[in-house]
């Protein structure tokens, strides 16, 4: 490897080892390149030729696998923060949009097919389902300042990313469980109620797609933290 090309190759090698949000990765690589260029210029002013200056700068910057490990932790943390914000905003929004869609196409829920009001346990499941989106959003939002506090106390970035992934996974799992519970309860109490209009059914499918996408983001928190 020619010394004159060592910074370019070092940055390329570093970039190939990193996984995470593209804009954060680009910023980290740009920062690394700027630091290497500045160090090379300092060595050149001290009397080394251009190639030796660049080689010295790379040697001082550190082994690429160690630098990549530190940068990967930062990338995993950035992804974790973004995932928590996404969970906090998207899950309640999806629930609100579904309700608005349902009210527009169906209006007030019709009476149950059987005589009398629904059983108390069904109403408890329905209330829990209605509040789950807000509960998990609150949990995701609370995890953000907790993570910031842990960072101030010295918790490393990969551990914080794993925490974000765990909170996001639990939030999405709880939301999915609530959706499954109300669907199963409705099928037991009044199956005809599940036969909604196509737009409302499509909104329900879209909610499931959103949860699936959020589950992928939560899993990536754990994957990126483990690299």
Written description of the protein model:
81% of the residues lie in helices and 0% in strands. With 227 residues, it is mostly helical. Helix 1 runs antiparallel to helix 2, helix 1 packs across helix 4 and helix 4 packs antiparallel against helix 7. The radius of gyration is 26 Å and the shape is elongated.
Task: Please specify the SSE layout and strand pairing.
Elements: H1 6-17, H2 22-45, H3 50-61, H4 64-105, H5 120-152, H6 157-189, H7 198-226
Helix pairs in contact: 1-2, 1-4, 2-3, 4-5, 4-6, 4-7, 5-6, 6-7
Q: What keyword list fits this structure?
A:
227 residues, mainly alpha, 81% helix, elongated
Q: What share of residues are in beta strands?
A: under 5%
Stretches where pLDDT falls below 50 for ≥5 residues?
none
- Rg for CA atoms: 26 Å
Q: Which sequence of SSEs, written as H and E, runs from N to C?
A: HHHHHHH
